[in-house]
Design brief:
The complex is a heterodimer of chains A (247) and B (310). Chain A has ten helices and no strands. In chain A, helix 2 packs antiparallel against helix 6. The mean pLDDT of chain B is 95. Classes of the chains: A mainly alpha (247), B mainly alpha (310).
């Protein structure tokens, strides 16, 4: 059984690893070259963060596995990422709404972790929060453009929001792992963050003329390594080159 | 399109003669402008289409470090594309027009990107051989006569030399690895060597547009000169890491101090240029599909901007 800190590192690292993968899928596929650059740049931020966190996790667990083995060599029942990070990219609206919902949360979380008792984690968070502020702003700008743009862009963005909303509750769940780390001064209080997040999200979508959906069915499971069907395919793809080079 | 007056023509010719850069507002002959638009837009399209074969491996890179480097490299290529489109735009053509020309088949991109990236070693081979060949060409183009193109080359060369080193590092590591990895690296070498040599274009006696390009100092060195420089450099790099050059006729000429290669398959080169290569249809179909799928996003951004401005 993984210790609470190790589980926590996997949560943070896997969020970035899987979201970074989804962003990398946009490479050569964005609506403009400028966006291609922005999406791969955000992918670079997240993969870079995943690398730092998984390197820390590898040294902490001390089982002789390196960060690459942790990134590519686990099976899907050992990935701790939030389900929202693995949802397929869909169209540009789904990608931007996901980026906003997640990054608005990520900024708050990393801001708290910047003063974590765990110095390594605090260092990673201090670097990451700057990146995620940019990701949040970039996505917020697009939500405004898409919400205000054309009937089609408005419709697609509202649809994206409706389909992703059910993946947001999981971000703020306080389970035993989160509680232990909060008590130790390493983690943060996700319940408090939820209120700030909700206000931010409401403002951005309302300004864009979009409506926050009612809370309906909420998908959960990522933090317990129970995923959607999408994750296995991501892992199979990520693992391909790694496995090729092990032989 | 307008004819130059005599004094404008003299101004242009004198600048070229003095080896000074021609700037966008300077008078220039229509043929010079047309030649540059064709060359710079082809260069820009190559950077952008080149993102596809490399992007093919970004989600499957064998390590986190390799993934980060590849992502950064593809970003560079995308940035080069943007930079070059901007340089071409100073000549009075828009990015949309250039894309329309590409999609209609009236503008080309480098044929090298019509070959597939089949294994991870292909990413090494592209960095080392393809970017290596591109650098030799681009270093020479730093002295090209059109200012914006010349300055774009200075900046691009700095990043390309990093690409070439990372490609060589992939090949070197694989050659120092397991038998399977060595075989993978040699296989990539076998498939990419000849196409890389043909990136410099046809032999000097068969290069249709070279005459004007030399006269205007757009092109400073011949295809064969540049190709030879690349061969001399690369053969030695291959030897260092134990890769075999896939050319039974390759030999070193003690008198000239250069490596000599066997005949290249120029029929294949012209076939691929004409559209009959392994990935021509795939690359263009991908680019057109993505462009069409993104139309609603570009339209929304445009409409939203108009609202801000009102």
């Amino acid at each position: 059984m993984e210790s609470p800190l190790l589980q926590y590192l996997f949560r943070l690292g896997d969020d970035s690893l899987i979201l970074g993968h989804r962003l990398a899928e946009w490479c050569s596929r964005a609506p403009t070259l400028e966006e291609d650059l922005a999406l791969t740049n955000m992918s670079l931020d997240h993969i870079g963060r995943a690398k730092m966190i998984l390197e820390y996790a590898a040294s902490f667990e001390a089982l002789g596995r390196d960060a690459d083995e942790l990134a590519f060599g686990r099976d899907e029942r050992h990935y701790h990422n939030l389900l929202i990070t693995e949802v397929p990219n869909g169209d540009f609206a789904v990608t931007m709404v996901r980026m906003f919902l997640f990054s608005a949360f990520d900024v708050l979380r990393l801001d708290e972790l910047s003063s974590s008792e765990d110095e390594t984690l605090a260092g990673i968070a201090q670097k990451g929060v700057k990146e995620s502020r940019y990701h949040r702003r970039h996505a917020a700008d697009w939500i405004w453009r898409l919400g205000k743009g054309t009937d089609e862009s408005h419709r697609r963005t509202q649809q994206a929001l409706n389909s992703l909303w059910g993946y947001t509750a999981e971000m703020f769940d306080m389970d035993d792992t989160e509680r232990v780390l909060l008590e130790e001064g390493i983690g943060c209080d996700l319940h408090t963050l939820r209120e700030i997040w909700k206000k931010d999200v409401n403002e951005v979508f309302t300004n864009a003329g979009l409506t926050l959906p009612e809370d309906g069915y909420m998908h959960r499971g990522g933090r317990n390594c129970v995923h959607t069907e999408a994750l296995g395919h991501i892992i199979a793809e990520m693992n391909y080159g790694y496995a090729m080079m092990q032989a | 399109m307008t004819m130059l007056t005599e004094s404008q023509s003299e101004f242009f010719e004198a600048k070229i003669a003095r080896d000074e850069k021609i700037e966008p507002r300077d008078p220039m002959p229509d043929d010079y402008r047309v030649h540059l638009i064709r060359q710079i837009s082809q260069h820009a399209h190559s950077e952008v289409i080149g993102m596809q074969p490399e992007g093919n491996w970004v989600t499957r890179a064998p390590s986190l470090r390799a993934k980060l480097i590849l992502l950064a490299k593809i970003q560079d290529e995308c940035g080069h594309g943007l930079y070059l489109y901007s340089a071409a735009e100073t000549l009075g053509i828009s990015r949309d027009e250039m894309l329309a020309q590409l999609h209609a088949g009236r503008a080309k991109y480098s044929s090298i990107f019509n070959y597939p990236t089949l294994t991870w070693a292909d990413i090494g081979a592209i960095g080392w051989l393809v970017d290596g060949a591109a650098i030799v060409n681009q270093v020479s183009l730093q002295r090209t006569s059109f200012g914006p193109y010349s300055r774009a080359m200075v900046r691009i060369c700095k990043e390309e030399s990093f690409h070439q080193r990372q490609g060589y590092e992939i090949m070197a590591q694989m050659m120092a690895g397991t038998p399977k990895q060595r075989a993978m690296a040699q296989d990539a070498m076998n498939r990419w060597w000849a196409p890389s040599l043909m990136m410099f274009g046809p032999p000097d006696n068969d290069s249709p547009r070279s005459h004007d390009a030399f006269r205007w100092k757009i092109k400073r060195e011949s295809n064969d000169t540049l190709r030879q420089r690349f061969i001399d450099k690369t053969v030695q790099q291959a030897e260092v890491i134990g890769l075999t050059i896939p050319d039974p006729d390759l030999k070193f000429n003690e008198v000239t101090g250069h490596y000599e290669i066997g005949p290249l398959n120029w029929k294949e080169f012209y076939d691929v240029v004409k559209g009959n290569g392994p990935c021509n249809q795939q690359r263009m179909a991908h680019h057109i599909r993505v462009h069409e799928e993104g139309a609603w996003v570009r339209e929304a951004a445009q409409k939203a901007m108009e609202q801000v401005n009102h």
